Structures are given as structure tokens and as C-alpha cells.
Amino acid sequence: MSERPPLPPLSRIGIIGGGQLGRMSAMAAARLGYVCHIFTPEEDAPASQVAARTFRADYDHLTALEAFADSCDVITFEFENVSAEGLARLAHHRPVRPSPFVLEISQDRLAEKSFVTERARARTAPFARVTDREELALALEEIGLPAVLKTTRLGYDGKGQARVTSRAEAEAAFATLEPKPLILEGFVDFAAELSVVLARGADGTIAAFDPVLNHHHQHILDLTLAPAPIPPEIAEEAQRIAARIAEALDLVGLLCVEMFLDRDGRILVNEIAPRPHNSGHWTIDACPVSQFELHIRAVAGLPLPAPRRHSDAVMKNLVGPEEIGLWPEILATPGLIPHHYGKREARPGRKMGHVTRLFPRGALPGPEGIAAAIAPLAMRYRPGE
Ligand SMILES: Nc1ncnc2c1ncn2[C@@H]1O[C@H](COP(=O)(O)OP(=O)(O)O)[C@@H](O)[C@H]1O
Ligand SMILES: [Mg+2]
Predict the structure, then answer these.
(1) Which ligand minimizes its atom distance to the CA of 160?
(2) In the chain, what are the domains?
(3) Which atom of ligand 1 is nearest to the CA of 155?
């Protein structure tokens, strides 16, 4: 998209999706003087609670999407499962950032991995498309076991995927995973999971945060350590890979690249998300300009300051009724910075909020120190796990 003048304060930014990512983007937008309109099917959505207007309809309701577009000056999204086609229609009404093309690539694990390997010259785990049982047999031969069988679309938080260690397991998983086609990926025995969040402007400026280390519990992000305790040359390589992907996509907006660091010190790209990411929440408290502000700045055409981290940080997600049930204790603990997403119902596995704990730069503690720092929350992260 060509360069446009920056949006002046009081311009209206449309965000498709009403979850916590939209909520925190809207909060950052408000600080810059913008007014946010949210599009979501959900009643009382986390983002609606902090936005000026909500258009409530299903994501495939074209007339509602068009009315929403006409009410805004620019459109972005915090939710990836809106139809890329619908978004392309909106692009006739208003600028859509990132572009529908970027969304389309990130929505499909096959398109995403092909793009990353062919266009951004980055490595991924070996992968193959699986549409029927013959292709499954061929893919298993090519990739070997253990492997991970995934749906190509609509997966999140580990849903729509299965780790398989035998042909029989692969066939059973093939029978249950929907919708087809599927993708078979080689299982990566990773040393760590890393991610890089960056913003790219219409003029090609890139602003990238330091890589962070992510620890998952039951396939849901549990803990992020910022910065990732990795050698500087690996950190630089991770940022270079993320920048190559952003450039190849001609991204205008925010991008998170999830990566595996394998036991040989090589980086393999796992997936990309062209929106704010859970592993970037620490930036609200540890950086002068957060991922949410960079998101809004990129979308609004404002300058993108190089990210600076004034502190090191640990971010712990509050997942499900048990962890959000500790809210009173969290509030009473000095040093824990609380973030509540305003969700009424705490279902198991639902992200309800997060806490951040800051440390002086270079003073990120080891596991024992982290456990102490996030008490009263239970520590699940164990090094070498
Ligand atoms: N090929 C793989 N090898 C090893 N672990 C994997 C692989 N693919 C996924 N995982 C694990 O499952 C988690 C979720 O998978 P991911 O592809 O990121 O899907 P999503 O985040 O959309 O649910 C990853 O963060 C990682 O821990
Ligand atoms: Mg993921």
C-alpha cells in the first residue's frame, strides 16, 4: 500500500475482533487520541468495553462489515479467522492494514510454511500436505515419526492438531481432524520456543522487539521471558528471519513470528501471526512503546520508534477459573502488574488476564527466582523440560 499522510488524532480505527488483543490495541489507540470501532459477534466483548462503538454481527456478514468499514478511517484486525475475501471487499472502502494478502497467507499453515521457505528463505520443520490416506502414507514415509498432524486452517492454542508416534496413531488422527486438508510436520525436539514481534511501516521501516522465550502449558502460552536467554548471534538471526518475512509479505502493521530453536542452535519458523501476540504483552510494562502502540502506529502511518526495553520482564498468563480466581492475591502482591481482560465467564483454558513482573536489565532470574517473583501463582516452567 502506498504511503499516506499519518492519521490525525480523533480519526477512527476499526478493529475486527473483540478479544483482549483488540482491547489492549484500543487502549493504546486511545492514548494516541484515536477512537476505536470494534467488529465482533460477541456481546460485551473485552474490546467493546474500552471502545467508542461496536458493530455486532457475524464475521461473514458482508453488509455489516461494509457499514463498519464506512464508519472508520482505517481497518485492522486482532482476529485471524475473518474471511480474507470479506477483508478484500472492505479494502475497496478503506485501507486495510495488514493487507488481506497477509491475512490469507497466515490463515493457512501450508501457504504460510511454503511462503516462509520459498519467499523468505527461512527454515521450517519438514512438512507435507495431506488430503487423503494415500497422501498420509507418502507424507509419513517422507517426514518420518514422530510427527504432528494439524488442520491447515482455524487451529489455535493447540486445537486441531495431534502428535503422532506411529502409523496407526496418524491414521486415527487423520480420521478425526477437520477440516481437511491437513498438514504433516516433522516433530521438532526443540531446545526452546522463541518469538519475535515487529512492526513495519508503509515506508518499509522495521521496529523489532528482542526475541523472547515462551513456555506453553497444555498447548497454551503460560510464561514469556523477555529477553530470551540466548546468545546474541541467535537473537540477531531470529530478528533477521522475522524481518525477511515481514519484507516478503510487504507487511504494514504488526507481525509475530513463532520459532523453534533446535538442539543444534538452528532456528525453524513455526507460525506467523500478523497481529499483536500474547508473547508481546510484556512490552506494555517493560518498554516505552508497547506492541499495541506499535500496531496502532503502523496502522495509522505514524513514525515507528525503535523498540527499547527499559526492564527485563516475566509475563505469566492467567488461564481459566483457577488462575483468575487468585485476582485478590495478585492485587495484594507488590511488584505484580495486573492486567484483567474484562471477561465475565472463566472457562477452563480461557485466557482471562496476565501479570507482568519487571527486573532491572540483565537481572532476569533463573527458575527459582521466577517462581518467587510470580507467587502466588504456581510455577509450571522447569528448565530443560
Ligand atoms: N512440528 C512441531 N514440533 C514440535 N512441537 C510442535 C510442532 N508444532 C507445534 N508444536 C507445539 O504445539 C504448540 C502449538 O502449535 P502451533 O503450530 O503454534 O499451533 P497454534 O498455536 O495455532 O495452536 C507449539 O507452540 C509447540 O509447542
Ligand atoms: Mg502457535
Answers:
(1) 1
(2) 12-96 (3.40.50.20), 126-186 (3.30.1490.20), 190-374 (3.30.470.20)
(3) 22
Give residue 274's identity as a one-letter amino acid code: P
With a CB cutoff of 8 Å and minimum separation 6, the contacts of 357 are 313, 314, 316, 335, 336, 337, 373, 374
Task: Give the whole-angstrom CA distance, residue 376 versus residue 357.
Answer: 13
Overall pTM surpassing 0.85 (yes/no):
yes
Residue of 219, 261, 279 with the most ligand 1 atoms within 8 Å of its CB, for mutation: 219
pLDDT at residue number 222:
96
pLDDT tens-digit map of 14-69: 999 999 999 999 999 999 999 999 999 999 999 999 999 999 999 999 999 999 99
Half-sphere exposure of 274 (CA within 13 A, CB side): 32
Q: Are 74 and 11 in contact (CB under 8 A)?
A: yes
The residue whose CA has the least distance to atom 2 of ligand 1 is: 187
